[in-house]
TrEMBL record:
InterPro entries: HTH_LacI, Lambda_DNA-bd_dom_sf, Peripla_BP/Lac1_sug-bd_dom, Peripla_BP_I. The keyword Transport does not apply. It comes from Thalassobellus suaedae. It holds the Pfam family LacI. This is LacI family DNA-binding transcriptional regulator. Keywords: DNA-binding, Transcription, Transcription regulation. GO terms for molecular function: DNA binding.
């Protein structure tokens, strides 16, 4: 590999001059910058990142830990993180916790040993169920900042990016009440997660404020046959005319089950669910969705972390950014 020393020797200038020229320093004249860059390109010179990180005590790398790479929302957040990190001059290393507390701990420990400057992460399901947070606090105490997104540990003092989960389901339920729906059910397969609980509370508030019915909740667990459980629920509760779903799969199954039982959507039943544009394309009629703006969440999380890394000496207060969801109306609702 060609080194700065070799470039400097051939150009008959100092090593610092070559370094400054490659970094577009105003201290170096345009002609010298041009000569240095042309020679560097000729020899396909690449800076030694490991040497730079040792010198600067920075890796310019962000560790990202997500619970499930197959989750469409999380994959889009990851896309947003990577795109924004590249813009800001950072690389990312991604680990998948597979919803496991131990895997999450191991990923933090592995990357905290000099591989990254800080972390962006979404808390695993097992971590939330067991409410374990010591591994996050330990990482932060080592001088490695963490930004949490979507599922967060509220007792950990770190920057966070969340969506307005409570308001989103509150407003979605209100939308169905405006359609004069009388029996609205809330369906969720994420009851163990903080976001699932917030979404259920938003639904409950809208129903209780309206006073026309009691809250009606169908919780689906991993061991359940999702399709069978929703279809059976609809059979037993024939008056259901509205569905608010905390997740995309339950909303899609609700539409298919209703149609299979002879109901017309949205004439007899309206359905709204947390889902992406691509999810809505998988239903007929197309699903009215609560859009979370995953790429925006990823970009905001990256900006928060980079700002924290660049201003560690200021000891700024932690921040929480709330990204507003959008209700994207399609053919599965009347209004």
């Amino acid at each position: 590999m060609v080194t700065l020393k070799q470039l400097a020797k051939e150009l008959n200038v100092s090593i610092s001059t070559v370094s400054k020229a490659l970094n577009n320093s105003e201290e170096i004249g345009e002609e010298t910058v041009k000569r240095v860059k042309e020679l560097a390109e000729l020899y396909n010179y690449k800076p030694n990142r490991m040497a730079l990180s040792l010198k600067q005590n920075k890796t310019k790398t962000i560790g990202v830990i997500i619970p499930n790479i197959l989750n469409h929302f999380l994959a889009k957040v990851l896309f947003g993180i990577e795109r924004e990190a590249t813009k800001l001059g950072y690389n990312i290393i991604t680990c998948i916790s597979n919803e496991s507390l131990e895997t999450e701990k191991a990923s933090l420990q592995l990357l905290a040993s000099g591989s990254v400057d800080g972390f962006i992460l979404c808390v695993s399901e097992e971590t939330q169920i067991k409410n374990e947070i010591d591994h996050f606090k330990k990482t932060i105490s080592q001088g490695l900042p963490i930004v949490m997104f979507d599922r967060v540990a509220h007792d950990v003092m770190c920057d966070k990016v969340i969506v307005d989960d409570f308001d989103a389901t509150y407003n979605a339920t209100k939308n169905l009440l405006l359609e004069n729906r009388k029996n609205i059910v809330f369906i969720s397969n994420i009851d163990d997660l903080s976001v699932g609980k917030l979404r259920e509370r938003g639904y409950n508030k809208a129903i209780l404020e309206n006073g026309g019915q009691d809250p009606l909740v169908l919780r689906i667990f991993k061991k359940d046959d999702h399709q069978k459980k929703i279809k059976s629920f609809f059979r037993k509760n024939k008056t259901i005319d509205g569905v608010v779903s905390a997740d995309s799969s339950s909303a899609i199954i609700a539409i298919n089950s209703a149609i299979n039982l002879g109901k017309k959507v949205p004439k007899h039943m309206s359905v709204i669910g947390f889902a992406s544009k691509s999810d809505s394309n998988h239903t007929l009629p197309r699903l009215t969705t609560i859009r979370q703006h995953a790429k925006v969440i990823g970009a905001n999380a990256t900006q928060l972390l980079v700002n924290r890394l660049q201003n560690m000496h200021l000891n700024e207060d932690v921040r929480t950014i709330i990204v507003k969801t959008s209700l994207v109306k399609n053919k599965s609702t009347l209004l």
